[in-house]
Amino acid sequence: VLPKPIETLAEKFRLFQGVGLRSSQKLSLEVLQLNPEEYTSLLSSLQETRNKVKFCQNCGFFAEENLGQKIECEICKDKTRNSFQICLVENPTDIITMERGEIYRGLYCVLENLISPLDNIFAEDTTLDNLFTTRLPALINSSQFKFLEENGSLLKNKIGQNQSTKIELILFFKAGFAAEATTAYLKELVISRGWSDKILITRLAQGLPLYYNPDTLDQATVVKAIEDRRLVY
Ligand SMILES: [Zn+2]
Predict the structure, then answer these.
(1) What's the maximum distance between 2 C-alpha atoms anywhere in the chain?
(2) Who surrounds ion ligand 1 at CB < 5 A?
């Protein structure tokens, strides 16, 4: 019953997760209600999002591109964050979930994939190589880390004692076989590089639903899982 352009637009909206038939029609009709300025700014906002949002060269989270500058996200830019805590996640959207907890003040590393040999996904399909050959060595060789190693530190990892000078890798993976395989591989990497005394690996506490979807976790669950994280290695 609706004119064809509206139906076509509604079909486009249905490409988005969670938008069904009714809400797609409703959104299309709302586009008609916009005044000219609102309509123009919606269009340019769509284009700008598409053109200027890239991935952070440091951690893989969404970041705005500014020509001639290194692409860096707002989290990596924030120098008040603890660079000795790195939370490893599979997807950039998992970072949004972690941030929802509002207590984590470290940095991130988006792996893009979890290792899953059965699905033909191996270490080279993740960003682990970059983490272990670039980011972690830079951190370990930084004067700040050397100072902390020699003088003890103010870092609060809240796990055990006498571990405050270590770099903490916090795993936030959807529970399952791939998470286990990735964790095992990480342990091997730390050992083979001789970094056992410098790096500790933790994962968010159990108590999360076994096959939780990071997108659907509420704030309280995230906070509890971060606070109660467990030592893996
Ligand atoms: Zn970043």
Answers:
(1) 74
(2) 56, 58-59, 61, 73, 76
Helices (H), 152-218: 177-192
Of the candidates 207, 25, 178, 204, the one whose C-alpha atom is nearest the C-alpha of residue 113 is 178
- Rounded to an integer, what distance in angstroms lies between the CA atom of residue 193 and that of residue 16? 43
DSSP, collapsed to helix, strand or coil, labels residue 201 as strand
Global pTM reads 0.83
Which candidate, 142, 125, 160, places its Cα nearest to that of 231? Answer: 160
| Distance from residue 108's CA to the centre of ligand 1 (Å) | 7
- Expressed in angstroms and rounded, the spacing between residue 55 Cα and the centre of ligand 1 is 8
Query: What distance in angstroms lies between residue 170's CA and the mean position of ligand 1's atoms?
Result: 16
The rounded Å distance from CA 58 to ligand 1 centre is 5
**Could you tell me the distance, in angstroms and rounded to a whole number, from the CA of residue 78 to the centre of ligand 1?**
9
Percent of the chain with pLDDT over 70: 89
pLDDT digits (tens, 9 = 90+) for 6-46: 999 999 999 998 999 999 999 999 999 999 999 999 999 99
